[in-house]
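Sequence only, no structure available. Ideas?
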Amino acid sequence: MTYYAFKVFISALLIVAIAEISKRSSFMGALLASIPLISVMAILWIYIDTKDIEKISSLSTGIFWLVLPSLALFVSLPLLLKQGLGFYLSLVVSVVITTACYAILIFTLNHYNIKL
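Reply:
I predicted one. Tokens follow.
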């Protein structure tokens, strides 16, 4: 249980640190958020817990493919905000767009027999 709490604490600390740094410098916040720290931490936790290289390989491949549709959020959100749509509505619309992109990618990968 202590190990689990440690993992939760480190993960939460990282998210809070990025949010706080972003208040001071959007560039530094974006830089830290863009580094795949969460993915690296997840890979590290899985390796420590299981030593299963196949799981890590599968996770890495899945992350690669699923990063692609997530980029839709970072394109649509600033565009919608610049159009004056309002923060919450822009965020909701961007999440819907991103969700649609995930569905399209998963459908496409399944069509070509690429399993995540």
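DSSP finds five helices and no strands in the chain.
Hope that gets you unstuck.
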